[in-house]
Structures are given as C-alpha cells and as structure tokens.
Amino acid sequence: MLPAEREHLIITFLKTNKKATIHDLAIEFKVHEATIRRDLNKLEQFNQIKRTHGGVVLNDSEVWDELNFDDRESSYYYEKLAIGHQAAEFVENGDTLFIDSGSTTIHFARALTQKNNLTIITNDIHIASILKSTSNQVIVTGGILYKDNYLLNGMITNDTLKLFNPSKLFLATPALDLEKGVTHFNETLTSTKIQMVNQAKQIYVLTDSSKLDKVSLYNVCPTHRIDTLITDHTNHKINWTSYETKLNHLVTVDTNICH
C-alpha cells in the first residue's frame, strides 16, 4: 500500500472511530508503528490530524465529540496551565463565581487556592476537591456524575444553578467561533452551560486556541455575551485581528512562563 493511500485510510478510520492510538493504527493497517508515526507526521504538517497524549484525533472545524478528561488534560497542557493562571488575575477577594467543568478550568481552580473570601459554585467534583482545603466557600451543584469527566449534570444540576446569581462565570468549551459563539456537541451538557450563562453577570471563556474557529451542534452563548476570552496565541491559523475586533476583551497568554 502506498503511503498516500494509507494516509487517506487513516483519515477514514478516524472519522469512524473519533480517535486512535499509534498501536491501533499499526494493527489496523498491518505495518510497524514507526511507519504510522511517519504517516501521522505528514498528516499533522497539513493540519489534518491533531496529536494527543498517546493518540491522534481529526483536526476538524466541526466538533462532534471530545476525549475523556485525562486525555484532554494532557493535551495542550502548558497552554491550559497559563490560561488558568491568567484567569485567576480577574478574580478579586469576595467574588462569587461559577466554575464550569473542564480540563482548562481545573488549572484555574488550582490558581485560586491563594485567593480568599470567595464563594465558588461548581458542577465539577475534581474542582471542588482542589478547593476544599482553602478558606473559600465551595458549593457543589449535585446531579448525575459523568465518571470519565468528573462533572455533574442534569435536572438537579440546573435547578441548583438557578438559585445563584454570581458575579462571574468561568466557562469551558470545546468550540468557539466568532459568528456562532460558544457551542457544544452534547445537548444534555449544553443545558447546564446555558443555565450558567443566564445566571452570571460577567462571562469569562477559558479555552486553548485549538478550540477557536470551531463550531458544534448546540448553541451555548453568543459572542457578544462573552466579556473576556482568555486563550493562547500558539494557533497560527487564527485571524487574531478579527478576534480583537469582535470580542469585548481578548487576553492571550504567554505559555513560555509555564515551561
């Protein structure tokens, strides 16, 4: 089989299976893992795939799914770390916060451990466990536990969120587009994010730049409702001038300080 033919079949495989490891692909195409790595290197050069910790996914403008939390946390790790630390600069002692569940907001929660007199409402048990030893008040929403992602969701979660009117929401997302705004691929998870948006006074979106210029099926929040987007500037395909023009406030972080 020619390399070009195998590369095409790898893309087809990923469209069907969403993600794969190098080992999976080597078995599927009956070649050595070194051969698969060369194929992936070429596909990555043309922005057709995205490498993750131990695997690979399609690099697509439409988001239909995402990896489990552990894989997402290791992907773009330093970008997410820097975003989390920068976001903490927007929190003042005495603030009331919604913190959405996510692999970027987990770093934000870690950066809040030095803050005081906060009231934090979250639907993420991992975030709650990080903040439990601080002097801040932590409220967990309750709801159905999604075990692979540490998040709580569903009717109980949404009913709890309706009880609060926090000053700030720190929102995670798998997709953000200047025209479509914040979107999500899962209808059930979308409802909780929408409820957070409806209740909060200010909205901060925390996401690495690989999620920009991406659209998913369900609308969460229009662009004009975003008070501040905090991201990294490592994605060279992004038209940053458009983001600066259309957003209320854009903050891009320096990831070098985290290495």
UniProtKB/TrEMBL annotation:
The keyword Transcription applies. Keywords: DNA-binding, Lactose metabolism, Transcription, Transcription regulation. One of its GO terms (molecular function) is DNA-binding transcription factor activity. It holds the Pfam family DeoRC. Residues 3-58 form the HTH deoR-type domain. It comes from the Bacteria. SUPFAM superfamilies: NagB/RpiA/CoA transferase-like (SSF100950), Winged helix' DNA-binding domain (SSF46785). GO terms for biological process: lactose metabolic process. Transmembrane segments: none annotated. This is DeoR/GlpR family DNA-binding transcription regulator. The lineage of its organism: Bacteria, Bacillati, Bacillota, Bacilli, Bacillales.
